[in-house]
Target: Acyltransferase
Amino acid sequence: MTARTREIASLDVMRLAAAQAVMFYHLVFMSWAEEGSRGIRAVVGTPVVFADAVVWASLGWIGVQIFFVISGFVILMSAQDKSASDFLIGRFTRIVPALWFFTVLSGLVMLASGVLSVAELTPRFLRSMVLFPVGPWVDGAVWTLVTEALFYAVVFGIIKAGKIGRVTAIAGAVTAFNLVFWCIVLAGEAGALGKTGHWLAGAASSYKLRVTLISTNCYFVTGASLYQIFMGRSVGANSLMFVINFGVGLISTYYAARSSLGVSAFGQDPAFAAAAWGILTLLMSACVLMRVGSGARFVRFATVAGLLTYPLYLINQITGGYLLGLAYRTGLSPVLAVLLTAAACTVLAGLFAMAVERPLQLWLKKGLRQIRRSVLVPREA
Model:
């Protein structure tokens, strides 16, 4: 870990906390409240209702929006002084091994639990393996990886065009788009644009706009602006963009919350989700800018947290749901069953990260770089 990454170790801890929020959202809320018969509720089998936990557990999905902010920061940082192919290899080896491993595992769980037949599983499996932008996938969490991959593609294009030094200007253009887009959405909500406006206001709550970055790019730009401020680059302009995109993020989270199960089925106030995201984002930003947690012990913990986060995110819904169902059937109390399942998911994620993921990433990087040198493209200057 470099001196610079030690200064932002708090981001790895925040990322793990976000993954845990998503995990408890799945285990405590979606395991019984989910609609349909092809997700975590189905693999649990006989769910237990945690009615008293709806207020907090139903908000766990905002961990995804926290991920997006962190990605805006970290991906821009990782793009510095890299060729386009180096960036692409780095992102591929970071995302794909765990995605493929846990897609296979989740598919086997779906088959073993009788939730999907081979014929039903196959198209979901193929869509998941290639991050196809339209679901359904084996695990519903794949939509967030599609969104991340689209962001990576944008950054790759910026590097390829030799414009990484113009990120502030590019972010400014995206910020202008966000202002126009959300002003139109709010005008449509108010009835100023007739039927088209009402349709657009409704569409702003859909996951399709979130997948395509139209309503989620504000989170990435918030994180990217924070990185530029952290580095002392065009602080005034980036501070303004941070404030604007943070405000847009509050609106986007509010609209996303309106389509969430906690709001649509249980009457939660979508403003709670927006406020929670806002408070956590400001807290995280303050920690980064103040270099909180750069001590040796904290850095060691943050390193472990960073290794755990991605596999924990991928294992907790389908495999975690299956383990939760097994725990229920042993007669354990519901709370203990959830805690043991969460612990098991964390341990399994750690074992995968250390014993499988890291060696596989190194092997893939070496192989892809050899291919680049010998077959595909020469290394860029």
Remarks:
- The CA atoms of residues 198 and 240 lie 30 Å apart.
- The two ends are 25 Å apart (CA to CA).
- Residues 3-374 form one domain.
